[in-house]
Amino acid sequence: MSLSHLRPSPPLRRLLLTHPLLSRISQNTYATHSSSSSSSSTNSAPRRRNVTVLSDDGRYTWSELSGREKAARATQQSFNFVVVLAGAVLTGGVFYLLYTEVFSPNSKTWQFEKAVERIKDDARCTNLLGDRREIQAFGESTWSKWARNRPIATKIEKDAQGREHMRMNFHVAGPRNSGVVFVHMVKPADSYEWEYRLLALEVKGYSRVVLEERHDPKVGGEVKIFGIRFK
After folding, report:
1. Cα separation, 204 vs 78, whole angstroms
2. In Å, how far are 40, 72, 105, 160 from 49, measured between CA atoms?
3. Residue range 7-18, pLDDT digits in tens
4. pLDDT tens-digit map of 62-77
């Protein structure tokens, strides 16, 4: 029911204002009604949520925080910084690993791909193996049926002069024949690039096809990898 319907008529209002007892009752009733309305308005206001390490969403400024809440926000920001830093370190490590193992000219993968292209570009090799577009290169046979998962037999070692030697062999197969490619490379102590000492293809029943061969009396010995002799 609207309060306007309970308002007294003008004669009764004058009586309430002039009579001392009735006037005091009217004032007390109005004060009680005003206090109740103010209290209801205060209780309906939303309560401020405490800021913790897990609940801090940044809605409150630094000056609005208590000492404990400031410590919680500082802890959260420190943790976020550590997470970002760790992510950056891991990302950099992944890129470094990819470069050194795949994209660097000194990596085994790079030299393997380069040797495969040399085989495909040589007319003597394609005459034995078949169309270069159908030649596949892969490593040693394993339990995996996928050729790309077969490891390439590779060995890297240093000689008495401090030079690095990379010896590698892998299989190639084409529509006509299949064979084995032998690679021997040397990296001089004062250089960062590999130099061929041997790049050859052997197909059973045919003479060895030599693409690169350089004899170096300082390169010693014969090395045997997976039952295959390198000279």
Report:
1. 65
2. 20, 14, 59, 73
3. 555 655 555 455
4. 877 888 887 888 888 8
